[in-house]
Design a protein that fits this description.
Length: 105
């Protein structure tokens, strides 16, 4: 399952990457303990609550992909809203959340 957080104006705040081994803390809210699995050039994977999530940049915004595990849509929405608030702040209203997938041939 892949999601995108997209600001209507194309705005992504400057991200403050964490210390070595915790760089992805710029994506992950502080109330979600995580273990970083990989990190390369601003993107990577982390285990959060026994689920592996990938964080990356898209043409329009930030991508978040569930790599391993199962979550309900409600759980995913709660997590994505927390990420949105963590990156853009509580009052920023221009960010849309999309479910993304591949187009069949």
């Amino acid at each position: 399952m892949k999601f995108e957080l997209v600001d209507r104006q194309g705005y992504i705040p400057d991200l403050n990457y964490g210390i070595s081994g915790q760089e992805l803390s710029c994506f992950i809210p502080s109330d979600y303990p995580f273990q970083q699995v990989s990190y390369n050039n601003g993107e990577g994977e982390a285990i959060i609550d026994k689920h592996t999530w990938q964080f990356f940049f898209t043409q329009e915004g930030i991508g978040i992909k569930l790599i391993d595990g199962i979550v309900s849509l409600k759980e995913a929405e709660h997590f994505l809203m927390a990420i949105k608030s963590h990156i853009w702040g509580e009052t920023h209203q221009q960010v849309q959340i999309f479910m993304a997938g591949t187009t069949p041939k």
